[in-house]
Amino acid sequence: MFAVIKTGGKQYKVKENDIIFVEKLPNKKDDSVNLNEILLLSNDDKNIKIGTPKLKGISVKAKILEQKKLKKVIVFKKKRRKNYKKKNGHRQNVTVLKILKISK
Question: I need a labelling partner for 52 at 20 to 30 A (CA). Which of 6, 10, 24, 87 fits?
Answer without folding.
Answer: 24
